[in-house]
Design goal:
flat
Length: 176
């Protein structure tokens, strides 16, 4: 005989499984394309961009603690998305090349957004006279974007400006 807890759990899981397609119905009933549905999804790159924009507005208004919160949220969401994209890409590899290609593209865009969030958060810490807190963020940008990317160059230049690094990176620039 099954215990009441197991019966309750099984019934709850069955109810959730049955309700899940019904929960997705209103989005489909609105006639939205997959791209339109994705744009309204809170787990999306559009949400990360929105958080960055809200952080930018707060920073411009001098509300640095509020900006820091938005940038932290953007970083956290981006990291979650990176994991989801990586997992889905791996799951479909060898089955349908379109899906890993899309997930990999989303992952590259998410990495760029993560670098931008790190750079903005590092700028907030510098404005708050806490450059030592900015260092790990800037190093992460150089690591994930490489020193040859725009974000990587900016991050390394900031590390030089705050005194963490002393040799300027001049690759791709004329020697002085």
């Amino acid at each position: 005989m099954r215990s009441p807890n197991r019966l309750f759990t099984a019934a709850l899981l069955a109810a959730i499984a049955l309700a899940t397609p019904a929960l997705a119905l209103p989005l489909r009933a609105q006639g939205g394309s997959p791209a339109e549905v994705a744009a309204t999804n809170p787990l999306s790159l559009a949400t990360v961009r929105s958080l960055l924009a809200r952080g930018d507005a707060a920073a411009a208004a001098g509300r640095l603690d509020e900006a820091r919160g938005f940038y932290d949220q953007a970083r956290d969401l981006t990291r979650r998305l990176l994991g989801f994209y990586r997992d889905l890409s791996g799951s479909f590899r060898g089955l349908d090349a379109r899906i890993p290609r899309e997930m990999d593209q989303n992952g590259r865009e998410a990495l760029t957004l993560l670098a931008q969030a790190n750079l903005r958060l590092a700028a907030v810490f510098r404005r708050q006279n806490q450059p030592e807190v900015a260092v790990p963020l800037l190093v992460e940008v150089v690591k994930v974007m490489t020193p040859t990317s725009e974000e990587g160059r900016r991050a390394y230049q900031t590390l030089v400006e705050i005194g963490f690094a002393t040799i300027p990176y001049t690759a791709g620039q004329p020697a002085r």
